[in-house]
Amino acid sequence: MQQVAGLAEQVRQNRVQVARDNPLLKMQGQVSEAIVAALERFGETKDRSFEQMFLSVYGSPLLQALLGMRASDEPPRHRPGVEPERLAFVQQRIAEIKARVAKGGAREAALRSLVYVGMAGSGVDERAFNELSQIRADHGAVTLDEFKRMLREQFFALLLDRDAALAAIPKMLPAGSSVRAEILGRIHRVVSAVGEPSGERAERLAQIEKMFEPVPPQVPAARPWAGSRLRRGKPQASAPERKSRELDRRSGASMSKQHEKYQRLIDVCRTLPPTPTAVAHPCDESSLRGAVDAAKLGLIAPILVGPRARIVAVAKEFGIDIAGLPIVDTPHSEASAEKAVELVREGKAEALMKGSLHTDELMGAVVRRDTGLRTSRRVSHCFVMDVPSYTETLIVTDAAVNIAPTMEDKVHIIQNAIDLAHALRFPEVRVAILSAMETVNPKVPSTVEAGALCKMADRGQITGALLDGRWRSTTRSAWSRWRSRRSTRRSPGAPTCWWSPTWRPATCWPRVSPFSPVPTPPASCWGRRCRSSSPAALTR
User: Fold this and answer.
1) d(CA 139, CA 509)
2) Nearest partner of 421 among 309, 528, 279, 296, judged by Cα
């Protein structure tokens, strides 16, 4: 190494600059350029091979279909350039999205709120995405493709016209305070998954919270349901009205007042746009005529779902005019129920109406986990009764769906009935909890549950109504004693909703009420399924 050091020192002392035309210098440059070019060609070849391998694996139509990325086996669509056709298409899509800004329900409002809050941050990380995926999984009726489509549409609605999109959120939400609180709670779960919101995110979340505040029920000028009038905030009847009712009760003259409360409701509903309704299997006279008559009154826009030949034959046999009504042809009653539910899921109908098929067939399609109309709350049934001798329209629940409900189910059933009463514009909802005894007895579980339900209402776990419990359903003067307790239970007026702990009393009472020892004319009623994503009406 000492010799090398000495030679290195000699080289440093005798170092001179090489001329540009030196052949060794030129050879060095050529070799260097060749190495660089070879490395570049190697890199390009490697990138092309990796790209081809990636496209051949992940561009496979079979793999993409298995992963749910697309359903067709067509080759991937090339990205178009800036062409007049594409610009026209974009303008058309923008017009379509703006036209649908105010359309949708609670699901669209929740997604729009989440997108609005999320646009203030840097994005969505894995925690928020997992929370959102869990909420979507809890509502199995929404497929991944449908969820992505709704999310994109809400994002573009905010991007194109933020003010209009935000102003439409309160109109898209249901009137029930409990439903609004439930949706807002899910929004908080997703937003808070990445930590407590701050800055602009917190401001936007507060703005969304104001939009979700419950709307107090408004008393219409012409009260379609109540049989009494308001005086100093309490429903009372005037002296002539009380006298007339007493005479009617004793003489049976109230027969002339049958369906009076129903008629008030119809008069109010006729001022609203007709509801697109899928009528499942209307293959007999009563179901087909009921749908057609409701359409003539402007209440619904029926879509007849069933065997076309049978529907046409029934219409011809009984002289029912179905000209102009759309008919969706199905082979049998079970297919009719599934297709009617599908129409609601696709947004082509907003309500279901039962035809001549069995209730089990329709409800089987409604509550099916993957393709039905289930929500997070228990589905329940309500009878809405017009009893001429009774001052109030009466809701009886649950009479058809829940045979042995749990305590949590019973809370859902009562809340469903309360929300229905508010949707029907009851000025005040008063729920009577029926039981075999009027005092709490540990040996009678229904009395214990009645006391617990009333306490839950006092603590805000059941909202929108006054609850009083442990009424004996066989007592003729139950509503009279209800009024006598108004000082202790804050319950002026007769009950507007009767809740039964099991389905047997609830389903029997509407059928035997015309034969009550009290001299009343026959009561009429109609049934409704509550808390599916769309209401289902049952013809009777």
Assistant:
1) 34
2) 528
Q: What whole-number distance in Å separates Cα of residue 337 and Cα of residue 278? A: 9
Cα R_g (the chain), whole angstroms: 34
| Measured CA distances, 65 to 157, 302, 411 (Å) | 29, 36, 43
Strand order of the sheet with strand 327-329?
327-329, 300-306, 275-280, 351-354, 536-538, 524-530, 380-386, 394-397, 497-499, 430-435, 466-472
Residue 423 to residue 437: CA distance in whole angstroms: 31
Q: What is the pLDDT of residue 197?
A: 79
Q: Residue 254: its pLDDT value, please?
A: 44
- Asked if 294 contacts 302 with a C-beta cutoff of 8 angstroms, the reply is yes
DSSP string for 441-457: -TTSHHHHHHHHHHHHH
Alpha carbon distance 316, 283 (integer Å): 12
CA 324 from centre of chain: 30
pLDDT by 10-residue block (mean), the chain, 540 residues: 81 81 87 92 92 84 72 56 73 85 82 83 64 65 76 86 87 76 80 78 85 64 45 48 52 53 80 89 92 90 93 92 91 92 90 88 86 84 81 81 85 90 85 80 84 88 81 46 45 72 67 42 51 56
Cα–Cα distance, 432 to 371 (Å, whole number): 35
Q: How far apart are CA 451 and CA 126, in angstroms?
A: 44
Give pTM, 2 decimals.
0.49
What would the two tokens of residue 27 be? Answer: 């050879």
At 189 the three-state DSSP class reads helix
Distance CA 244, CA 261 (A): 17
Q: DSSP assignment, residue 79?
A: P
Distance between CA atoms of residues 274 and 298, nearest Å: 5
What is the Cα–Cα distance from 374 to 213, expressed in whole angstroms? 24
Q: Write 109-114 long-range contacts (CB < 8 A, 24+).
A: 109/169, 109/172, 109/173, 109/183, 110/183, 110/186, 110/187, 111/150, 111/151, 111/154, 112/154, 112/157, 112/158, 112/165, 112/166, 112/169, 113/169, 113/187, 113/208, 113/211, 113/212, 114/187, 114/190, 114/191
Q: Quote the pLDDT of residue 206.
A: 86
Q: What is the pLDDT of residue 79?
A: 57
What does the DSSP 8-state code read for residue 357?
S
Report phi then psi at 222, rounded to 5.
-105, 105
pLDDT of residue 227: 46
Q: In sequence order, what are the residues at sequence separation of 6 or more whose Cβ sits closer than 8 angstroms to the Cβ of residue 220?
A: 268, 425
Paired with 306 in beta bridges are 329
d(CA 318, CA 408): 47
